[in-house]
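Exam revision sheet. Question 4 asks you to relate a sequence to its structure. Input first:
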Amino acid sequence: MKSKKIILVLLIIGALATHNTMAAETKGEVKNNLLGISVGARMVVSFSQIFSKLGVTPGGNIEIGYLLPFIEKRLAIELASGYLWANAKGSGQDQRLVSSEGEVYEGYEWELIQHQLIFTLQIKGRIFPIGKKFNTYVYAGPSLYLLWSVVKANAEGNDFGTNTERSTKPGVSCGAGVEYKLGPGRLFGEILMAWSPLNHDVTGDKSTGNLGLGFGYIAVF
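Answer key, structure tokens:
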């Protein structure tokens, strides 16, 4: 009788252990069976002063990505589309600027608004597997810049009108950040750098280079 009770207890323990193992495997299977699609958005504040006279540059972007199905989805390919708005002001003198009476203006003032529409194809690498609560990452990739320069100028109250110029330039972007798992995705903060040439007639041989901060959320399905 005692031996039957022992056998019964062992069978119950074995059944519970098997159930727990299967539940753990199923849970892990669900976690690993993510489609690997990510969708995110970020707000950006960039500082262009280290590259040019362009000032603080606000903007944002959206992105869609795919987590590669190996090394526990540490690597991802992402396509991002973003917009940055930059501004610069200044003054100068030009002996060629004369009034209708033929008098040379003492000086002139100008304002530049630089619009940047940016498309980036980037590779992102996470240090830890995608399922970790905390993670760090780096990314880099080539960019395509659609640039639109708008310049206004005046001298002693006389408006010189508005000059515009558009161009498409190649560029590059990179960054590094940390993320925290929250809901179906991750909150993140990062340091980023982006650059492209900017050699319009109204700007001279400059660049859109900037160093900035980004904050956002990326959902993973």
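Marking note for examiners. The helical segments are 2-32.
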